[in-house]
Amino acid sequence: MRFAFIAVLSIAYAATSWAADPLPSWNDVASKRAIVAFVESVTKEGAPGFVPSAERIAVFDNDGTLWAEQPAYFQLLFALDRVKAMAPRHPEWKDREPFASLLRGDMKAVRAGGEKALAQIVAALSWKPAAIAGVADRHGRPIAVGEPANLTVFDPSQQWTVVPAQLASKSRDTPYAGRAVRGKVRHTILNGVPVVVDSTATR
How far is CA 2 from the centre of its chain? Predict the structure, then answer.
């Protein structure tokens, strides 16, 4: 299966007539023209780069690929949706701000809480992520005999330069390429098997 990585906004416009400007708020520069040309090629039957609708995937990432800011960052929208999905497991949120306002749909009240409210919402999703993901029986367990050996050794002081070709991720796209950063994973053990040794993935 071929995959086209297309922004949802562009996909929506692809079904319309290209006689009108599909991105009227964008400046008419080379990057805009390249995006429009790409979407035209992918969505026009008979074109060399045509990809059937069922095989198109829209990818949203904040590694430099796509990072929407309006009406809000994807991370924030995800956090708000997750709070609503997790609410049945947290009945106390109905009487606790900023969760109570969020669950009522009162975003004005949530925004009035400022950074503190947003930090509380994000913290609720960041604390014990294994439990949130439903894999607490295998991850996030205490370090003890008989528990799954899932451990990471992180060196917060190590400085290194990001080289995309050396990343363990299948995606080599990153806005940090060539940048010097501080803090690095030194070793990772998954189910008792070393999968990162001396900052190098073993598989």
Answer: 22
Residue 84 contacts residue 102 (beta carbons within 8 Å): yes
Paired strand residues for 200? 197
pLDDT tens by residue, 34-73: 888 888 888 989 888 898 988 887 665 555 456 666 777 7
In one-letter notation, the amino acid at residue 52 is P
Plot region of 27 (φ>0 → left; ψ -120 to 50 → alpha; else → beta): beta
In the chain, the largest separation of any two C-alpha atoms, in whole Å, equals 67
Domains and CATH numbers, the chain: 4-57 (no CATH), 74-127 (no CATH), 151-201 (2.30.40.10)
**CA–CA separation, 194 vs 186, rounded Å?**
11
**pLDDT, tens digit (0-9, with 9 covering 90-100), for 99-111:** 999 999 999 999 9
* Phi, psi at 17, each rounded to 5°: -70, 135
Nearest to 148 by CA among 185, 197, 202, 193: 193
Burial of 110 (0-12, 13-18, 19+ CB in 10 A): buried
